[in-house]
Amino acid sequence: MWGLCKGSGSTPYRTVVDLTGPAYKCSCPSRKFPCKHALGLLLLWARRGAGDPVAAPDWAAEWLAGRTARAERRTAGPVDAEAARKRAERRAGRVGAGVAELERRLSDVLSGGLAGQERSGYAGWEETAARMVDAQAPGLASRVRELGAIPGCGAGWPARMLEEFALLHLLDRAWLGVSGLPEPLAATVRSRVGLPQPAEGEAVGDQWLVLAQYDSVSADGRLTTRRTWLWGLGSGRPALVLDFGPPGRPPELALPVGLALEAEIRFRPGSAGLRGDLGDRTVTAAVPGVPEGVSTGEALAAYGAALREDPWLESWPVVLGPVIPIPGEAGDGAWQIADVEGTSALPVTLAQGRSRSGLWQLAALSGGGPVTVFGECGHRGFTPLTAWDPHTAEPVALG
Amino acid sequence: MNDIDQAGGTTTADGDAERHGERDWEDLVATALLGTERRGGSPQALLGAAALRTVRRRAGLRPAEAAHRPRPAPRDPRPAPPRAARRRLAQLLAGRTAANNGGGRRGAAPDLTELLPQWLAAAGRHGYRAPEALVPALLDAARARTDLRPQALALAGARGLWLARMNPDWRFALRGAAGGGGGLPDPADGPAVERLWEEGLFAERVALLGIVRAHDAGAATRLLTTTWPTERAEDRLMFLDSLRTGLSPADEPFLEAALADRSRNVRATAAELLSALPGSALAGRMARRALACVGPGAVEPPAECDAGMLRDGVVKRPPAGRGERAWWLGQLVEAAPLSCWPERFGGLDPAGIVALPVPGGWAEELHAAWCRAAVRQRDPQWSKALLGPASAPPAAGPGTASLAERAKLLETLPEGERADWVAEFVRAHGLSEAFQLLGVCRVPWAGALGRAVVEALDAAREAGSYPWSFSGVMGLAERCLDPAEASRLEALTTLGEDHQDTEASQDTSPGAAAYWSEAFQRLVATLRLRAAMLAELAPPPDVPPGPWS
């Protein structure tokens, strides 16, 4: 079924609807799908039925033909299993070559010494990163790209650089032996290297509490990543849902902190079981009350335990509490979050894209008294994301 | 096991194994820095050892030693605003930052920035505290806009000061903090008051002086006297200035002594304060001097500025372009109590006196001085006489044609009379001159005043004026009109058939009708928003507001 719709432009919009799908196609620039023109066409059809059958114009016929061809190719799937296996093998071979090249590069740099890195800057690592993209290992590529920034981040950079080298080396070695690794770990290695993950995994149905949601923009400004932290109220399990948006368009998933969703989350294999995809959901209600928190020591122990499953893990989600935030000297010094009892504290670190104003909000909520705070606890410290108002027990998204 | 990262500071290593591990790692870093070619060993072995160490270190992290915990903030006994109001404040504060990025022409959406002061004032009237989570944003807003500071800081209260002590960006809050500061002693507690007065920061001392003064005016000036000679001139000026609120005859001895101060500004301020006390000795001296110069049918300005006048705060040198004698006359009349004139003019009332012809071309000088005196002494009768009838053309008024000075005179009138006078003015002269006068009227505007403004706006639209010529008054109306007017205004938001077909196409400005409609839409939307905002702030009827509500 097709139609022309007069819009504000000089040429009318060309709208086609395939009722077998249903599928839609329209020449309008709208990002809504189906667009209003296709909907209008459907409404006309529903009210009056289609007009007399006429030959579809070329532009409509072309699209329909394309759809049919694609559908046929899809049904031919099983025959292609062999081809898919071959493709995977070819890719594994390419990644292997990339890994070998990366190992050579790391060795070269280390035999000459890191001292030269302060001068050589980004360019060398950008080039290596590009080689990893060619080798179809985007996970390696992004790790390599970040190496270039390390010499510029102040005292202690050689130690940080060596750590990152060491973790890359560990990943390279793990990839080379991936066939001998037990399954969850092998999946972790594959996803860290950057191989596409099959969407199948353990599905957990639960009431999921939204603990935090925040965006970060990639260094080149091209991609916005929205991280949503969820907490299974029944399963006691954390889940990280990622959503992405191109420049100028925020990611779509918008969930206010404190909301509870009845939903099924399909966890991706590997990566310590954090990454998941959110299925169909119904909002139940805001969940009142403050969650039970752990001490700083327990938080670090939880991170340490998660490293057993994924040694490349940067941080682990924890609810700390009751704790007291300690602002840094003169406002811009190092902040800490300390247990109410005892002398233990975690240094506060700001994850990429997070501002200091969230820290001041946390201090304001605490007023020097105990609070409960959710955040990411990692080897560099704790990033606070959400705190519960001690008076109202309402969650407050920080920052 | 290791201490967390370098930022953590102290080490919690216990046992040889760990110290050994630490040295191990440092060894590896040194080798990596210099290169295996120089230090020996293979790069692959170095990478392997480093990988082991890195993961082991991360897996075995332990907390750092806690730094000194901040002293808890004093408890704020005021209730938090209701939930909807808290959310509204968050929106208004977020709108503040968004508005800075935007710019360009205003659409039909309300301007949230301008509603912030009203929210703060209304919340203050209800006796709420600021929601803790929003205190940082509130302090940021107050930092950017000094007009918000008194109300923002009052709402932020003890929690705001507690935060401001830790963040240099908010230091202004410590300077300006008056009252509500938490740490102030009971004004009756003599030793505590004296200690803070001797040792406190300037802001604390100003606040202390305020509460002591409210408790016992004599005690406040006694306190000031104890340290007066050692205070810096600018501090003396500020302390003196703070006596302006609650000025009473009890302050006279102290002010009289301050007339002999080293600093000229302090002397002038003391004289000004004394002249606002009609019963003071200075006012009496000024009255004698002024009465000698001005009488029915004769004005004879002083021939010289003697030592007595100088001591009473008269400034000898006139500003460039003004005659000495006129300058002195103005100062004498300004400082003389207005109550001395009716007798001098044979029992006439202020209106009668102001209406008299003034000989010798001194009319302007004399009337201007009376205006300043009426403002300083807050005398509504004289203010009304000097303002004249609102319907008369501004230039024909007896007192002053200056809108700024008329606004000051209006401020001395009771609120009702003020609104009536301005409403009359708007009906007679339209809106183009009314901005400053409207600015001193109580918010929300009284019914008659609101109707006068709306009718004048409608008349301006009918006349085909551009709405942006009235953007100042429009903005003011958005903030000040009674929200109850919204429904009556609704009719003006439509374009109107006749406008589009006849006038708009012929004699009115093209496009103006649409702009007017948009401006009225924004006006209505803002009024609605204000009504919602105020309703949200009302405490819930059933539950009495407790500190944890």
Give a structural overview.
- The complex is a heterodimer of chains A (about 400) and B (about 550).
- Chain A folds into four domains: about 1-75, no CATH class; about 80-195, no CATH class; about 205-285, Beta Barrel (OB fold (Dihydrolipoamide Acetyltransferase, E2P)); about 295-395.
- Chain A has a six-stranded antiparallel beta sheet. In chain A, strands 6-5-4-7-8 form a five-stranded antiparallel beta sheet, with no helix packed on it.
- Chain A has about 400 residues and is an alpha+beta fold.
- In chain A, helix 6 packs across helix 7 (about 185-195).
- In chain A, about 35% of the residues lie in helices and about 25% in strands.
- By secondary structure, chain B is mostly helical.
- In chain B, about 60% of the residues lie in helices and about 0% in strands.
- Chain B is built from 29 helices and five strands.
- In chain B, the strands form two sheets. Chain B has a two-stranded parallel ribbon with strand order 1-2. In chain B, strands 4-5 form a two-stranded antiparallel sheet.
- In chain B, strand 4 (about 295) and strand 5 form a beta hairpin.
- The model of chain B is unreliable at about 5-15, about 100-105, about 495-510 and about 545-549 (pLDDT under 50).
- Classes of the chains: A alpha+beta (about 400), B mainly alpha (about 550).
- At the A-B interface, helix 3, helix 6, helix 8, strand 10 and strand 11 of A face helix 1, helix 2, helix 3, strand 2 and strand 3 of B.
- Strand 11 (about 345) of chain A pairs antiparallel with strand 3 (about 65) of chain B, so a sheet runs across the interface.
